[in-house]
Design goal:
Elements (H helix, E strand, L loop, with lengths): L2 E5 L3 H13 L3 E5 L2 H10 L4 E4 L8 H9 L6 E5 L4 H9 L4 E4 L4 H13 L9 E4 L2 E4 L4 E4 L2 E2 L4 H12 L5 E2 H8 L10 H13 L5 E3 L3 E3 L6
Parallel strand pairs: 1-2, 1-3, 3-4, 4-5
Antiparallel strand pairs: 6-7, 7-8, 8-9, 10-12, 11-12
Length: 222
């Protein structure tokens, strides 16, 4: 049975989500604020997190950022905040999906099923393969055709972001939010500098520039 952590402060929505998810065969646990959510996440094993944004104590963005420092568990934002800026911020934190309220429960269940089916970067899938690159997320080692690459922490996280979602384009803003924190106020060109250094160490065309938008690792069949 797959276990889902529901992080939501509205009792009616908690009850709705629990009922539908349990009927669909999932195990559920509920946290009503960000602090409780992080405590439960540390104490128990979950396969997916449904995460509201407007939470007491620590908001959903903060919760996701802290989760991402230690895990690639699938995270689906479920929020009444439907603006582009909020959605970009959520994806910048490496969320797997962003669902706006009010939502269709059948559609949400299908999104959950799809994310769980593809693995979503869970701890069981601790190796990423891309062309001749192999990334081990447990040991934080990257090999290129058998050669160990000496990457900094930021370079590793940049590469991991691209390899976990091949084909997805990441803007500088999204990468800053993911790696430096969504409240970063420095020069966004710091991303370009790190990607330049990463490309030099990779010695190959693994990271594409999407002109006027950002960067991506192209899908291998392209």
């Amino acid at each position: 049975m797959k276990n889902i952590l529901i992080v939501e402060d509205e009792p009616d929505i908690q009850e709705l989500l629990c009922a539908y998810l349990q009927d669909a065969g999932y195990g559920t646990a509920v946290a009503g604020d960000g602090v409780t959510a992080l405590s439960m996440f540390q104490a128990q094993s979950f396969d997916l997190v449904l995460l509201d944004i407007m939470l007491p104590k620590i908001d959903g963005f903060g919760v996701c950022e802290l989760i991402r420092r230690q895990s690639q568990i699938p995270v689906l934002f479920l929020s009444a905040l439907d603006g582009e800026a909020e959605q970009l911020k959520g994806f910048g934190l490496n969320a797997d999906d962003y669902v706006t309220k009010p939502f269709s429960m059948p559609i949400l269940l299908e999104k959950i099923r799809v994310v769980l089916r593809r693995g979503g970067g869970t701890s069981e899938n601790n190796r990423l393969h891309y062309r001749d690159l192999v990334m081990d997320t447990d040991t934080r080692e990257v090999f290129s055709d058998g050669r160990l690459l000496e990457l900094t922490a930021k370079e590793f996280e940049l590469l991991h972001t691209f390899l976990a979602f091949p084909g997805r384009v990441f803007t500088r803003e999204m990468l800053l939010a993911r790696l430096w924190g969504y409240d970063f106020f420095g020069d966004e060109r710091v991303v370009d500098s790190h990607i330049k250094n990463l490309r030099h160490k990779l010695r190959g065309e693994y990271i594409e520039t999407v002109r006027g938008v950002g960067y991506r690792a192209a899908k291998e069949d392209q």
